[in-house]
Design brief:
Number of strands: 8
Largest sheet: 8 strands, parallel
Order of helices and strands: EHHEHEHEHEHEHHEHEH
Radius of gyration: 18 Å
CATH class: Alpha Beta
Oligomer: single chain
Structural class: alpha/beta
Strand order of the largest sheet: 2-1-3-8-7-4-5-6
CATH topology: Arginase, Chain A
Helix content: 25-40%
CATH architecture: 3-Layer(aba) Sandwich
Shape: globular
Number of helices: 10
């Protein structure tokens, strides 16, 4: 990935209704202002900004007492499933600018369809403080940004949002790294379904490099495609405060960049979400700039390429 330019499709998903608070709809604009297109272009990649999705509410979906704003989230899910699948089929790497984490219901589903057409398994690397394996039956809040993993694994089919016969992701092919906030019922669900969880204690005890070597070798052995979903709250709030779900004790600057550098070297990544950026809660664009820097590491920026900033 670092040595050969690829074609990246930027797809804005200004979804905030999945999170239960306002602000994430400004995330795509903040990432553009922070220079994501220019940064990727300077690394030798062809970048097409496909603009922001503007889906109409999915009025065929009924209201659900355990799934807040189902029609809006469902509409974005359908639009992202189609847009991501189309971009991947055309040979472009979909990079989704979020938006809250409910958008992964659509982005991962679209990549699952593409992987099935390629005859390859899809793996998901979930970089997040939260497991997001709730469903309306288990969610304490009903906020759908806590349900995407269960949804794309086929364990939250509570409404006809997408085709019931679509390809799902095997929960055993989901790697969750940086987890440090899980609901009690959710903990039972991820254990029952075999989701591979590397919480912050695992990182402290074994080190990020060891964990990433294990993940990368597993995906390579299966000839898999990899979707990466990066939530701002994966990072420690001191590093990236612009998120509405801060949990202390997150990944450090170097741990996060190491993940991206190792993924770059692996050449496995086929799609990427950048989610939960809330510029209203940020400190003068700090979190947006960090996400752009991490994206640069994923797409080929090396340590020797990094500029030195004045203190």
């Amino acid at each position: 990935m670092a040595d050969k330019g690829i074609h990246i499709a930027l797809i804005g998903a200004p979804l905030e209704e999945g999170s239960g608070r306002r602000g994430c709809a400004m995330g795509p604009a903040a990432l553009r202002i922070a220079g994501i297109e220019q940064t990727l272009s300077e690394l030798g990649h062809a970048v097409t900004d496909e603009g922001d999705l503007k889906p109409l509410p999915a009025r065929d979906l009924p209201n659900h007492p355990g799934a807040n704003h189902l029609q809006v989230v469902g509409a974005f899910t359908r639009a992202l499933d189609a847009a991501v699948h189309e971009a991947a089929r055309a040979g472009r790497l979909p990079l989704i600018l979020g938006g809250d984490h409910a958008l992964s219901m659509g982005s991962v589903s679209g990549m699952a369809r593409h992987a099935a057409e390629q005859g390859r398994p899809l793996f998901v690397l979930w970089l997040d403080a939260h497991a997001d394996f709730n469903s309306p039956a288990t969610s304490p809040s009903g906020n759908m940004h806590g349900m995407p993993v269960a949804f794309f694994c086929g364990e939250a089919e509570f409404a006809p949002i997408l085709d019931a016969e679509r390809p799902f992701v095997d929960p055993k092919k989901v790697f969750q790294v940086g987890i440090r906030s899980v609901d009690a019922r959710e903990r039972e669900e991820i254990a029952e379904h075999g989701v591979r969880v590397f919480d912050m204690r695992s990182i402290d005890e074994t080190g990020m490099a060891h964990i990433m070597h294990e993940i990368i070798s597993t995906i390579k052995a299966a000839n898999g495609l990899l979707h990466v979903s990066l939530d701002v709250d994966f990072l420690d709030p001191e590093l990236a405060p612009g998120v509405g779900t801060t949990v202390p004790g997150g990944a450090t600057f170097r741990e996060a960049h190491l993940i991206m550098e190792m993924l770059c070297d692996s050449g496995l990544v086929s799609s990427l979400d950048l989610v939960e950026l809330n510029p209203f809660l940020d400190d003068r664009g700090k979190s947006a700039r960090v996400l752009v820097e991490l994206t640069a590491s994923l797409f080929g920026r090396r340590i020797l390429d990094r500029p030195t900033r004045a203190a």
